[in-house]
Design brief:
The protein is an alpha+beta fold. The chain contains four helices and five strands; from the N terminus they run αββββααβα. It has a five-stranded antiparallel beta sheet with strand order 4-3-2-1-5. It is elongated and about 60 Å long. The protein starts with a helix and ends with a helix.
Length: about 160
């Protein structure tokens, strides 16, 4: 049982790391001379890189704010889920453990799903509005989807683990 708990903690910490990287790093949409995330656009020239915040001037600012908010909320919920897991591990009796942690992880999973789904459905409009040529999804966007899978699996593991000795 100790090995299972250690695996779950490592899996949870990995989920938190993936969420932090996906939320902070500037690689949701990348091209040969630019990169775009949910916070700013960076255009690379031969000598410098010019980064500008995605402001309220864009037509899709509310959608971008929704993506920002749900990614931040997901990261906060995932961190809180780990603290809740540690608390429940030592304070609650068997059968009551990990239900709250599982629910918190499921909410975190839902927030990542909302953010990544909104971005994937509206990315064409974002890039046309910002007048960016071509490009493809970057590793931060892929990490967001991987974090979705990890948080979902983690919530399922918590709900299964709640009755184990």
């Amino acid at each position: 049982m100790l090995a299972v708990l250690a695996f779950i903690v490592i899996f949870h910490i990995t989920s938190i790391a993936l969420l932090f990287i996906a939320t902070i790093d500037n690689a949701w949409w990348v091209g040969t001379d630019f990169s775009l995330d949910i916070w700013r656009t960076c255009v690379n020239t031969t000598t410098t890189s010019v980064c500008t915040d995605i402001g309220s001037k864009t037509n899709y600012f509310q959608a971008i704010q929704t993506i920002q908010a749900t990614m931040i909320l997901s990261t906060i919920l995932c961190c809180f889920g780990l603290v809740c897991f540690a608390f429940q591990l030592f304070r609650l009796k068997q059968g009551e453990r990990f239900v709250l942690s599982g629910i918190i992880q499921m909410l975190s999973c839902l927030c990542v799903l909302i953010a990544a789904a909104i971005y994937s459905s509206m990315h064409e409009s974002f890039h046309n509005d910002l007048k960016l040529p071509g490009g493809s999804f970057g590793y931060s966007f892929i990490l967001a989807w991987i974090a979705f899978a990890f948080t979902f699996l983690n919530s399922i593991m918590y709900l299964i683990l709640r009755k184990r000795k």
